[in-house]
Write a structure and sequence with these properties.
Layout lengths: L1 E6 L4 H9 L6 E5 L14 E7 L10 H9 L4 E4 L1 H9 L5 E7 L2 E6 L14 E5 L2 E4 L7 E6 L7 E4 L4 E4 L7 H14 L6
Parallel strand pairs: 1-2, 1-3, 3-4, 4-11
Antiparallel strand pairs: 5-8, 6-7, 6-9, 9-10, 10-11
Length: about 190
């Protein structure tokens, strides 16, 4: 089962309805400020940390995100705010961009051999963006997988664990984004029907 932390993402309902539900992928969505009792949850195979409003320091109570990150040893992917939360959890700084990003943007893949890009067959793709903040440098123990004209640290992965951060939103970025999400689901050991 996927555990999904909802940080008031405007894209989560669309992703749930048009991907998770359609493909019958088992999942549980909890709110960003909800207490998580891991002893009462079914076995968790993967963690998704959604995008949302603000940044890792304000205005939301993001406790559930950090509790899940520190207590689960499962494949993890964070989108937008989720990417920034992962960065902060591993000692990165978050910085405000000059301009708000709210469009599709070209992403240049630096590590096409990473399993998250399996079957993509190209070195660039378009991703939906909706953010004001970014990670100006890599978090401790992470490698850069992709960059863009706006963000040098666009996609990251932990050096030793299947923990990914995407500054954009692959979950709502068309065929290429859904291919990335299918790769993540497979990393979690879940079957796609």
């Amino acid at each position: 089962m996927l555990l999904i932390i909802d940080n008031q993402s405007q894209y989560l309902r669309q992703f749930k309805r048009h991907y998770l539900d359609d493909l019958d992928i088992p999942h549980l969505i909890v709110e960003h400020n909800e207490h998580i009792d891991f002893s009462r949850l079914p076995e968790i195979s993967g963690l998704i940390i959604s995008g949302g409003k603000g940044n890792p320091y304000e205005p939301l109570n993001l406790t559930a995100n950090y509790v899940a990150l520190m207590n689960l040893n499962v494949p993890t992917i964070g989108f937008c705010l989720g990417h920034e939360i992962i960065g902060v959890a591993w000692q990165a700084k978050v910085k405000r961009l000059v301009d708000y990003q709210s469009k599709k943007e070209r992403i240049l893949i630096d590590a096409p051999e990473d399993p998250i890009f399996d079957g993509l067959g190209k070195h660039e793709f378009m991703i939906q963006k909706k953010h004001r903040y970014h990670l100006p440098s890599l978090p401790k123990d992470f490698v850069k997988l992709a960059h863009s004209a706006v963000c040098n640290v666009e996609i990251i992965r932990h050096k030793d664990k299947p923990i990914y951060g995407f500054q954009g939103h692959p979950e709502v970025s068309g065929i290429d984004g859904l291919k990335i999400m299918s790769n993540f689901i497979r990393l979690c050991g879940l079957e796609i029907k």
